[in-house]
What we know:
Layout: H1 2-14, H2 17-20, E1 28-32, H3 48-57, E2 62-64, E3 70-72, E4 75-80, E5 86-91, H4 105-115, H5 120-127, E6 129-134, E7 139-144, H6 151-155, H7 168-171, E8 188-190, E9 200-205, E10 229-233, H8 238-246, E11 252-253, H9 261-266, E12 270-274, E13 280-286, H10 296-305, H11 308-315, E14 322-323, H12 350-359, E15 366-372, H13 376-391, E16 395-401, H14 403-409, E17 423-429, H15 430-433, H16 457-468, H17 472-489, E18 492-498, E19 501-505, E20 508-509, E21 523-524
Amino acid sequence: MRASLLAAGALAALLSPAAAQAPAREATLRVVLSNELTSIDPVLSTAAFVRNHGFMVYDQLFAVDGKGIARPQMVESHSVSADAMTHRFTLRPGLLFHDGAPVRAADAVASIRRWGQRDVVGKALAASTASLEVIDERSFELKLSRPFGPVTDALARSTASALFVMPERVANTPATTAITDATGSGPFIMDRENWRIGDRAVYRRNPAYTPRAEPADGLAGGKVVKVERLEWLAMPDASVAASALSNGEIDFVEHPAPDLLPLLQKARGVTVGLINPVGSMVWLRINHTQPPFDNPKARQALLHAIDQKEVLQGLGIPAEDQVPYCPAYFMCGTPLESTAGAVGLRDPDLGRARTLLREAGYDNRPVVFLNGADNPLNNGSTLVLAEQFKRAGMNMDVQTLDWATVTVRRNRREPPAQGGWNLFVTIANALDAGSPLSNLYLASPCEGGLTGWPCDAKLEELRRAWWEEPDAAKRRTLLDAVHARAYEVLPYINAGQFRTKSAWRSNLTGVLPATVPVFWNVERK
């Protein structure tokens, strides 16, 4: 009954006078993603909702296809010197920003420089760069100061702080200051006047966008927009979203609550399917700067308290979509899967966890666990993990917030009792985990690192050695060394891997398999 009443409320909102003035239904696609849009700077924020926005309004120099291979996107040609130390890029002709200005090499260079100040991959590329200069209106040149093998993979960065090309005037904004201008050159134009946090973000088809000639493939290829308008609705209640989808009031739900999937699979006119074939991982992020987890033994205690299978069961993930045990930092089922150095996680050992906590000097102080409760996956995994840690003897303080607040709160470095934190959960995909280079929460650079602030020079040396090594066999050995060291440092912990299904109206065609929800190529039949 509650779900029906809430769904009725959602429908009433859609039928309000403001909604009645919207374009014809056939021209509008209405989607519900894991979180609503609350900020728009894809460099300043690593939140998935900002990345999702980025793929609407921006384009990329290179983009990853359905097999994870970097393909030219805005780039027309790319040449590399014999020693692989100099790269020259030329942009496709006719690229335009939403304000009508041409896309220039200067825009690309400024965008790379801003991105390189904050993103883990961008920082690695910047540290290996001798110069990055404009050659002419459409061409620019990157000269390396030391070997860096995955240059195009870096420029195809599509998650965390993805590399999007902005106008130079916007990209010149300090990387620590949020941009307010959403001008890009991508397939959609953001309608800033109709963006209402707590309600919806609105995008229009970009009539001046010129797609590549190739078919759409993952995040690469021809981005052909087949709807006139897209509305990204704020609908945090999973039951409301499921009812709205079943009733045809919305068209797509990125992550329906697992316990609602059986109902959606039976609903007339609804398709349930896998878009991300590798799946997702529950990342438990740890604050390395605050007790008790500033002590490595306290972090290691978590490994022996976690039961991954129980976490996945608590989320309601169907058995066929669970990976009951996965110790891999770079995700199970990928070419970079490793078990080197792995301990714990398969079966909890509460006695060992308590011993490590005592050795760490844990004094029963509250452990502040931030819970982004408006996301069912975050909420479910947080509650299960908190109970597991309580069994191991920790005094758990689960603080219920919305995810947008968590993304702000997690940047605070004060003690937990003064508004800081100890733990939070986020859901990562195969692109987030990626590799020793691209795994954003693996990086442990001390100063300048991401929230949680792990600090380990040896892990950083091993990561850098991996991306600088040209020999594949040696890179595999280095990868295992990175993995083993990560289990000593524990920048974060894999609390469970699983595949997630999406749901959409059956009259939609062209929904692309990709690790990021994208809506070019989608049309209603």
